[in-house]
């Protein structure tokens, strides 16, 4: 165990994240994840929506058996759950499934049915944000699959940054990648992807709030279509 895997102050971690963001800007995705593995060891995890398993695959090369955290909101497409199960079966990772405090039925009983239609921010908070905050408590750093080309809101994503809300180092190793880069990696390494990506979906979230994208739309246009909402709250 390195010193950085032990408890560090928030200021130490923030300074580390900001320095690494500058120093690793031109590093490859695998180099960024190798830095994370060497720095944080088992206090580092990957989060995955199971849209694809690219970051999980990359992380498993840097840290075999790495924890891959998946949020089972209760609203996922069957294809997404199937992708999670396949990733767990064939990759050198440890899939950890987080669930909300309430089942969908329990949430419906307390808040009324289809909360996602009436108050999607609250629904995301209950079924995504809060479970993730609980699930990340044992880690000092987490990795995401955020890319700068996905939307305007993600255009300035650092490869390593500071998650102020959670007090953790946030790593986005493929931030600089394009969709073509993702596809090239998938093809070269035979990485699992969600079947919905071959059926008109460019970004896969909960079934009630996700639609296929139209020609010319950005990858996030199919999420919460018709609303100003573009993020679930996990990333801002």
Automatic annotation (TrEMBL):
Species per Swiss-Prot/TrEMBL record: Streptomyces plicatus
Lineage: Bacteria, Bacillati, Actinomycetota, Actinomycetes, Kitasatosporales
Cofactor dependence: [4Fe-4S] cluster
Positions annotated as active site in the UniProt record: 232 (nucleophile)
InterPro entries, sorted: PAPS/APS_Rdtase, PAPS_reduct_dom, Rossmann-like_a/b/a_fold
Cofactor note: Binds 1 [4Fe-4S] cluster per subunit.
EC number of the protein: 1.8.4.10
Protein name from the UniProt record: Adenosine 5'-phosphosulfate reductase
Subcellular location: Cytoplasm
Gene: cysH
């Amino acid at each position: 165990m390195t010193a950085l895997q032990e408890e560090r102050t928030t200021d130490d971690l923030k300074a580390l994240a900001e320095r690494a963001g500058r120093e690793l800007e031109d590093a490859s995705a695998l180099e960024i994840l190798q830095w994370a593995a060497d720095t944080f060891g088992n206090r580092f995890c990957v989060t995955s929506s199971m849209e694809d398993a690219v970051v999980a695959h990359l992380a498993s090369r840097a840290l075999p058996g790495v924890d891959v955290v998946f949020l089972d909101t209760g609203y996922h497409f069957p294809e997404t759950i199937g992708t999670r199960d396949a990733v767990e079966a064939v990759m050198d990772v440890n899939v950890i499934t987080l669930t909300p405090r309430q089942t969908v039925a329990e949430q419906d009983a307390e808040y009324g049915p289809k909360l996602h239609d009436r108050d999607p921010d609250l629904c995301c908070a209950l079924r995504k944000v809060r479970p993730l905050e609980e699930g990340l408590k044992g880690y000092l750093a987490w990795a995401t699959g955020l890319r700068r080309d996905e939307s305007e809101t993600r255009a300035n994503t650092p490869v390593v940054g500071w998650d102020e809300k959670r007090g953790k180092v946030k790593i986005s190793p493929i931030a600089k990648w394009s969709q073509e880069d993702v596809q090239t990696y998938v093809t070269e390494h035979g990485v699992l992807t969600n079947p919905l990506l071959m059926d008109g979906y460019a970004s896969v979230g909960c079934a009630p709030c996700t639609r296929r994208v139209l020609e010319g739309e950005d990858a996030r246009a199919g999420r919460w279509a018709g609303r100003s909402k573009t993020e679930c709250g996990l990333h801002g």
